[in-house]
Design brief:
Layout: H1 25-28, H2 31-40, E1 53-57, H3 64-73, E2 77-82, H4 85-93, H5 113-122, H6 131-134, H7 138-146, E3 151-154, H8 161-171, E4 175-178, H9 185-188, H10 192-216, E5 221-227, E6 244-249, E7 253-258, H11 266-285, E8 289-294, E9 296-298, H12 324-333, E10 338-341, E11 347-352, H13 353-364, E12 375-379, E13 382-385, H14 386-397, E14 401-404, H15 421-425, H16 439-448, H17 465-470
Parallel strand pairs: 1-2, 1-4, 2-3, 4-5, 5-8, 8-12, 9-11, 10-14
Antiparallel strand pairs: 6-7, 11-13
Helix pairs in contact: 3-13, 8-10, 10-11, 12-14, 12-16
Amino acid sequence: MKFLLLLLSAAPVAPFAAGFAPSAVSRRASTTRLRAEVVAAADGVANGTDRKKVLVLGGDGFCGWPTSLYLSDMGHDVVIVDNLSRRNIDVELGCDSLTPIQPPETAGRHNNSWKIQAWLESSQLMRVQSTSTMKQVRVQAWKEVSGKDMKFVNLDVAKEYDLLVQLIKDEEPDSIVHFAEQRAAPYSMKTSKTKRYTVDNNVSGSNNLCCAVIDSEVDAHIVHLGTMGVYGYGTSGGEIPEGYIDVVLPGGREANILHPAHPGSVYHATKCLDALLWQFYQKNDALRITDLHQGIVWGTNTPQTIRDDRLVNRFDYDGDYGTVLNRFLMQGAMGVPLTVYGTGGQTRAFIHITDTARCVEIAINNPPASGERVEIFNQIAETRRVRDVAKLVADQTGVEVNLLPNPRQEAAENELDVANRKFCGLGLDPITLDAALFDEVTEVVGKYKHRCDPTKILPASFWNKKRAEECAGLDPASVKVKV
């Protein structure tokens, strides 16, 4: 079989979520465990499944890169597709990844090499790495350490439709994993320009993907990385089900319908629009689609990325792209008071980056049959309140917790009960939060803390004029780090 995974670079916590048993911390997330799993990875495909062709849209991104490596390590044939838009946003924001991520391929090795070269010439990374080091790039580094080949294709899914159709025809993937979206809620709320870009990129990319699968006449299973934010927070009146909710319609008619959308940002709104596109194309064209409603991702390394420094995953710490737990861990390691928004009473769902990759493979190995409705998984390990997560980090690092005005338009406090039994039933034993789990992230921060720009730590995007006014007293220059 062939399996196509498309990943485009775009991906907060309560009691353990139902259905997932917490794991022993030292066993589940320490660097020792990661290295042990490297040894355990077999040359063949995991769990006895067939080798698949996987096209990864967004495979250069925070979730896409480690997922691509994991799938390759499990024996799948992986093609990474990315237009490097996330790296361009680094330049736009003046804030690089804390980790020095390598370009996917050396300029000149693919048909759009000028795009790579332009990025190399403009990126701040050029100032801190030699040209010779840059040539030891990600795809080749993976080949050297694993003996496995991966392709890289520079392609804009939202704009280069004909190339996308031809790529699918040429590769004939079994599945396409779609991470090809602008992934940050704060960035999507920054300006009118970023709001429009997020809608144009995300919605057009998803629609193009569906059309391309139809026009290519390839029966590829689409696996999309969505977000828990499509549900809103605490709007179900109880446990949030996995995608579909039982309702009673007028006249006493019972039905099971797509859970009502309740987005909290332009980014979340695009994921809700994606969900409607999936429903339409499944109904109209019998596309096979799985939508993964993922929680907030934390962590940096996986058993694959730790095998060579050139494979390191990106680590975002800024107010726009840094996920809440990673921001806290970075701040704690650098002696910066933790930036908790509002009361910290927001309850959010969390998942470790290693489990993101595992869940994607579980999804692609369990596709819906032709004609079946869109399969939806809640891709989380647990839920907790933000202030409780901050306390975990503060207790470990000794830093203070700083309650800031909230730049977001959201409830100050909410409950969150989430069903996630499907992945548990398919064999996922998730990584859960605990102090010992944080060692991996703090080790990364310690190694690369000289790359941190402290003026990028405070929030810089505000949901509306009122929120901006309430945050007007925040001074980015006031943040000091302990070197």
